Amino acid sequence: TRPGTRDEICLQNRQESFEQAPMYVAVMTYLGYGIVTLFGYVRDFLRAVGLEKCHVAQERDEQKDFVPLYQDFENFYTRNLYMRVRDNWNRPICSLPGPVFDLMERVSDDYNWTFRLTGRTIHNVINVGSYNYLGFAENNADFLKTVADTTCQFGVGVCSTRQEMGNLSIHEELEKLVANFLGVESSMTFGMGFATNSMNIPALVGKGCLILSDELNHTSLILGARLSGATIRVFKHNNMHSLEKMLREAVCSGQTRTHRPWKKILIIVEGIYSMEGSVVRLPEIIALKKKYKAYLYLDEAHSIGAVGPSGRGVTELFDVDPTDVDVMMGTFTKSFGASGGYIAGKKELVDYLRSHSHSAVYASAMSPPVTEQIIRALKCLMGKDGSTEGIRRIRQLAENSRYFRARLKEMGFIIYGSDDSPVVPILLYMPGKVVAFAREMLDRRIGVVVVGFPATPITEARARFCLSAAHTRDMLNQVLHHLNEVGDRLCLKFSRRKYSSWPDLCEETDFELDS
């Protein structure tokens, strides 16, 4: 039996942290963006009068009378703000992106407009930025033997769609395994996770339908909703009052001008939100969906494999029936160390998408070695490989997530999200601190991901840490040690809450199960 009742589990996962920063932080953040914007206009003026070299793309002289291909103001942010800090992104990796990786050193001689490699390699950088939640991004020859055998048998590419000559036996094996793992009737897989959302939502809804979308949904969901032609309304993040108000209005008023009933009402949410680290309030959304006769589309890109006692995602975390979710979507790019995505649910749904989804009809079939990598990861999680390695990784990830979050709170950082989430955002706020933080951490051989406006609200720039089952306690302690020092040096500890000291929960050996 699973530990805890449904109400206890729900209460536990509602305890999410979204602490607000002091007022002076918001003022300084706006002031910082104002200063860099002002300097941007000054630099644009210097470029216009020829006192500074212009590196941006421009039309040729003979095209000056045409409608501009490159809108000057639209690129203002890129050339004047992003370009100054571009060295913190797109860093070239030259090793396996596991818990540690090697980085190719690069420098710029023109303020980040171009880069050149120095030939030096930065070794053993601790990786806290990749979505390698269960550590399946690995190169252990013993673990990858079946992947190597599949490559020898089927080759690397299929060169055809599933409906033509690209439907392999391992594709069908994978789909049966996914359906069995999720506890639903059927599933289908796709070669690209982003396209799983953007190309399947238009096949499910269209004109005359209503989409209710969480305000923090991923870009792939937003694009799919826009491509569908359906009416889109956005509700506040994880706010059940906002969602129910929209559902009630949609049912009572119908379509905007005709007031005819909506053909379909589709609620779109994510299991774990990748920028906030928050977990969807699934039981309440299911209750509202049933009450107002709507459909539910659940994106488990970051939650499948990463949460739940056996890694089956938020449906297992909240102990809800998977069949209560009409469309279950997930990706294999994170917990499974591969690529692609899946749609799962009733057999009628999957059969419909096989013939109506653009991603199914026109896209090339999933690569055989990638397919086998997902199969071996699923079998490991389900115990079908005869070991307890899968459950050990799931428990280790949960332990790492809670330990890391508790230590950060104790240090005084403002972090977002649920204690169960392996996505841990640390709020940095000010643009200058974001850049300094990323560079300082790399100097200490820790690879982090920093995110700012326009990917986040202007006052909520952050560093996003993604934890892995492959991280050892020593690695986490090393990262926490440097975070503590950098936090003091850059004055990043904005939290006004007091947390009790968090004892060491247990050693890693406590999670080694007997065979």
UniProtKB/TrEMBL annotation:
Pathway: Sphingolipid metabolism; Lipid metabolism; sphingolipid metabolism. It is an enzyme of class 2 (transferase). Its EC number is 2.3.1.50. One of its GO terms (molecular function) is serine C-palmitoyltransferase activity. Signal peptide: none annotated. It comes from the Eukaryota. Keywords: Acyltransferase, Endoplasmic reticulum, Lipid metabolism, Membrane, Pyridoxal phosphate, Sphingolipid metabolism, Transferase, Transmembrane, Transmembrane helix. One of its GO terms (biological process) is ceramide biosynthetic process. It holds the Pfam family Aminotran_1_2. Its cofactor is pyridoxal 5'-phosphate. This is serine C-palmitoyltransferase. The lineage of its organism: Eukaryota, Metazoa, Chordata, Craniata, Vertebrata. It is found in: Endoplasmic reticulum membrane.
